[in-house]
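Fill in residues.
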């Protein structure tokens, strides 16, 4: 019915080294043999194949696949569909795992579909959204500011679609969440309009969820109107008056705030979406902050490579001490010429 699971068991020296399940995208009319053949080609595209691969279903182009995998390994690779004995039992075990995994996945997908229908009903959307984009910002006193976008749909969180945005606006006041959200949404929409102005691809969202209340929603709606995207639903998720989880209010342009029952599964679903966006934003911010902390001011000076940087750090004890050094001290460092000493001094004392 258009859903597939391939279970891979890794056997080395007659020991089971674990297993993984994969869910390749297939059409409703794709056979097991076609799904298996397509998977083999993709799975071994970036990894070394073993000498023996046991399959649950024969594929159509066995000779071609064996030849391709043999060329990749540099020695003969055999594909086999065992009918009896220990190898057949191994394959049946993998097939059983695949059936169970697919059953769980289909149950999760059905639950997700039900939640998306509930979300559409609660927010008065035309149809269950297939692509929800959730936005959040993270910063400390305005520094190392980042915006984050996560994506969710019928298959759950689509992590390959997540995006991070380094906030560039130099005119922004530190901590200006409105300004940061405006920059992120403007950049995102400009890219969508450039790549798919007719809105034909699945890259366009059906729903924007943002962290904030009526003010943020109004600002985002203003951006959409400026860009001529007037039919994209925007919903702000804000903590209620007591700031407690479970008392969230939903804000929509030109409409009264909406609250869901505290035990409504749709509310839990939105909380998960918002929490995932917050987690991704915080993680992105921490990575940016760590990179900034690790950055060395000496890296910005032309002519100061690894060996000269080590000489300067050994002589002065720290990069900060180098920034405060006078010209005579810089010239005294082994391996630093007069010209380079003057360049380093000018770099840190420009305008003084």
């Amino acid at each position: 019915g258009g859903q597939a699971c391939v279970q891979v068991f890794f056997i080395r020296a007659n020991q089971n080294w674990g297993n993984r399940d994969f869910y390749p995208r297939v059409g409703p009319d794709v056979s097991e043999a076609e799904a298996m053949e397509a998977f083999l080609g993709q799975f071994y595209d970036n990894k070394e194949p073993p000498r023996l691969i046991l399959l649950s279903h024969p594929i159509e182009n066995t000779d071609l696949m064996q030849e391709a995998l043999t060329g990749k390994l540099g020695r003969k690779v055999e594909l086999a569909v065992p009918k009896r004995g220990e190898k057949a039992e191994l394959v049946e075990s993998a097939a059983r795992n695949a059936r169970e995994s697919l059953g769980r996945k289909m149950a999760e997908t059905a639950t997700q579909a039900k939640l998306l229908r509930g979300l559409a009903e609660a927010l008065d959307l035309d149809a269950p959204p297939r692509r929800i984009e959730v936005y959040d910002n993270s910063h400390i006193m305005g520094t190392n500011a980042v915006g984050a976008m996560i994506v969710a749909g019928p298959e759950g969180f689509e992590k390959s679609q997540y995006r991070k945005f380094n906030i560039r606006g130099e005119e922004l006041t530190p901590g200006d969440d409105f300004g940061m959200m405006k920059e992120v949404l403007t950049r995102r929409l400009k890219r969508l309009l450039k790549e798919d102005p007719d809105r034909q691809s699945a890259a366009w969202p059906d729903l924007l969820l943002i962290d904030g209340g009526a003010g943020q929603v109004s600002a985002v709606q203003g951006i959409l109107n400026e860009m001529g995207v007037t039919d994209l639903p925007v919903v702000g998720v804000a903590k209620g008056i007591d700031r407690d989880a479970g008392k969230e209010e939903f804000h929509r342009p030109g409409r009264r705030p909406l609250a869901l029952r505290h035990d409504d599964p749709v509310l839990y679903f939105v909380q998960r979406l918002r929490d995932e966006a917050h987690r991704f934003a915080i993680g992105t911010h921490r990575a940016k902050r760590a990179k900034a902390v690790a950055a060395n001011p000496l890296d910005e000076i032309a002519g100061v490579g690894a060996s000269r940087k080590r000489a300067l750090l050994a002589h002065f004890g720290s990069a900060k001490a180098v920034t405060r050094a006078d010209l005579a001290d810089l010239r005294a460092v082994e391996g630093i010429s007069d010209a380079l000493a003057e360049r380093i001094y000018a770099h840190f004392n420009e305008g003084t």
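The two ends are 72 Å apart (CA to CA).
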